[in-house]
């Protein structure tokens, strides 16, 4: 029985299963931020920030300089998920999303830790620690950052 258990553990502990899980982790984390990014822009545009975004950053989130912080968040939520999904500079992209999560947690929605943000931190943390894995552009081009 122990031989069978050890064999199963060896099978799921290999580099291919890890690469598949890291790919799913990249897509899951990027999807969260990409969907948020798309709510911040005018319909039919790529990066034209909506008036609603400025209003939310000013009134609901209480962010200083809402035109600037809104724009930075909009650009980051578009650019960083692309890096993460591609697995290009995966650790850098995931670290950026981790920082964004912590800003959201501490300054915007401090009551959302157990419902939402702990999962985002876990996903980003895995990618910062492990990189993009075998199925990433980082691996393809031999980057040490991925």
Can you tell me about this structure?
There is one protein chain. With 146 residues, this protein is mainly alpha-helical. Helix 2 packs across helix 6 and helix 4 packs antiparallel against helix 5. The longest helix has 25 residues.
Annotation keywords:
146 residues; mainly alpha
The beta-strand count equals 0
User: CA-to-CA gap between the ends?
Assistant: 38 Å
Number of helices: 7
Major sheet size, sense and barrel closure: none
Helix-residue proportion:
over 70%
SSE pattern? HHHHHHH
Class of secondary structure makeup:
mainly alpha
Name the overall outline.
Answer: elongated
- Global mean pLDDT: 94
Low-confidence stretches: none
Which percent range describes the beta-strand content? under 5%
Question: What is the gyration radius calculated from CA atoms?
Answer: 18 Å
Helices, strands, pairings?
Elements: H1 2-12, H2 15-39, H3 51-60, H4 66-86, H5 90-108, H6 113-130, H7 137-141
Helix pairs in contact: 2-4, 2-6, 3-4, 4-5, 5-6
Offer a quick outline of the entry:
The chain is mainly alpha-helical and 146 residues long. Helix content is 75%, strand content 0%. The protein contains seven helices and no strands.
